[in-house]
Design a protein that fits this description.
The protein is an alpha+beta fold. It is about 15% helix and about 25% strand. The longest helix has 6 residues. The N and C termini lie far apart (about 25 Å).
Length: about 45
């Protein structure tokens, strides 16, 4: 796993999404369920 990605994502555990590797691309964020418009998924500190 890329250490720079691990440093950027402090705690990727969520009921809304999962972060998984994508062959040849790096990592991607995938919804675990249908999300309503306006749902906050990620927020900067």
């Amino acid at each position: 796993m890329n250490n720079s990605i691990e440093r950027v994502i402090d705690d990727p555990q969520s009921d809304l999404f999962v972060i998984k590797p994508i062959d040849g691309k790096g990592f991607g964020m995938f919804a675990k369920c249908d999300l309503q418009c306006g749902t906050v998924i990620v927020c900067e500190k």
